[in-house]
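My hope is that you will study the protein record below before we discuss the fold together.
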Amino acid sequence: LAVVGGFAQRILDQRGASTRLTLTADRDAAVDGASAVLLQLRVGGQQARAGDESFPLECGCVGQETTGAGGLAKALRTVPVVLDIAETVRRRAAPDAWIVDFTNPVGIVTRALLQEGHRAVGLCNVAIGFQRLFSGWLGVTPAEVRLDHVGLNHLTWIRRVEVDGRDVLPEILEQHGDALAERLELPRSLLDALGVVPSYYLRYFYAHDEVVRELRSRGTRAEEVQRIGLMTAFLVSPGKRQHLLGESIGFRQVAGQPFSSFARIRPDRTVDPRYRITIDGAIRHVRIAHGRVYLL
């Protein structure tokens, strides 16, 4: 609670928002009179996630928290808890309150909420991420870009990208296909054959065997997140001497960047743009020695 609350407060402060932030572990107090309730939770924590991501690998399948066997296991733990919270929202929140689900697997959890008659919507950052990416390539504002999605979260495809009512997806694929393929970690030839932009979650299906090999060799995402948590812990008490095992999570200081900028480095020594962390804290010194990153 302190970590998430502190992070939220820093965002508000940076934006100059006058919003008052209150932290509480009392569900009833948090929900009372609310006009919107955002759900983002993980039943069983990272330890349970590690199980979801590892047992499918024993069967030669992708271990992942939103799709496949791992996603189903997470759903079976999560849906009952979410529906219990939703009943509290029904009793104590405003009559027209929205439940905004940001808990994976979003598609299954949101459907469960709707089937029980709750006023709910699922939230995912994939669409807005593509919208912002395309707007930058096209030289327009994100608000001018309209995406036409098909599929179920998280397995979706973008089949049209409209600007002023005109479909510019063919232009994006022609001019930026290589960059898009690299971002999705899929072959350019696949994008050209599909003629659409798949969600990066679909890599678990289009490149299934490759992903299984990667997961078996580098460990689960849950294990990685737990280690990254050591870096996050530094933000809570920046005056304390902390260290993290940079070697084990593959993070290195980015060449030519400030001491507070770290990113995952691929085996070919290029920066993986999906995993970049900038620490905004009182870091007085960074030392890299014997495969470890020390933040002092």
Observations:
- Residues 230 and 244 are 6 Å apart (CA to CA).
- The chain is about 45% helix and 20% strand.
- Confidence is low (pLDDT under 50) at residues 232-265, 275-296.
- The first helix runs from residue 2 to 15.
